[in-house]
C-alpha cells in the first residue's frame, strides 16, 4: 500500500465506508481492511513528520484517526463473529491480524482463547503445527505490543485463559515433533518463555536441533528468532539448560557461534 498523494479527505471517506461495512464483511476481508487501514494511517503520519503530528487538526491526522477507528471497528466485528463460529485456523488468523495491527482488546483476546479452548477439546487435530505456531506468535506479539489505544493485553488473565494455556501446552507437547523449520521460526519468544513449561521448551529445542533451525541455509532467516527464544528462556528458566541432552546442548551452543 502506498497512499502517495491521496487526499486526506478521500481517505477519510474510505475509512467511513469501511467502518460502516465492518459488520457485513467476510472475516478475511475484515482482516485485510484492518491491515490496509492501519498501514495507510502510518503513512499519513509519516508524511507529516513528528512535529506536525502534534497538530490534531491537520487533515492528515484527522484522516489517520478515522482510518484507525475503522480498523478498530473491523476488529470488533471480527471478534464477535470468530469467537462464536471460527475454526482453529480462523481464530489464529484473527489473533495474528489483531497482533500485527495493534487493534486487539482484552475482551477480544479472552473470547478468542475461550473459543480455542473449546476447539482444543472438540477438534484437537485442527491444531496443526502451523496453527499452533500462529497462535503462539500472536499471543506473544500482543504481550509485547499491546492492543488498541495502548491497552495492555494478558493471555494469562482469568480462569478460562489459564485453562486454555494448560490445554494448549499439552497439545503443543504432542505436536512439536511434527514441527518444520517455518513452524519453529514462526514462534515468539514472549510466548515460549513465559507460557510454555520446561518440558515443552526442551522438546521444542530438541526438534529445532534435529532440523538445525537457523543454522542451515534454508532456515538461516530464523536464527534471530531462535536466539531471542534462547535468551528469553534463559531468563525465565536459568537452570533448564542443565537438563538438556548432549545433542540439544550442542545445538544450543551453536546458536551463539
Which descriptors apply to this entry?
257 residues
Unreliable spans = none
By secondary-structure content and strand pairing, the structural class works out as mainly alpha
Order of helices and strands: HHHHHHHHHHHH
> What is the alpha-carbon Rg in Å?
20 Å
* Helix fraction bin: 55-70%
Number of strands: 0
What does this structure look like?
The mean pLDDT is 92. With 257 residues, this protein is mainly α. It has twelve helices and no strands. Helix content is 68%, strand content 0%.
Summed up:
The chain is mostly helical. Helices cover 68% and strands 0% of the residues.
What is the topological layout?
Layout: H1 8-20, H2 27-48, H3 59-85, H4 88-101, H5 106-122, H6 129-145, H7 159-175, H8 181-185, H9 189-195, H10 198-211, H11 223-236, H12 246-254
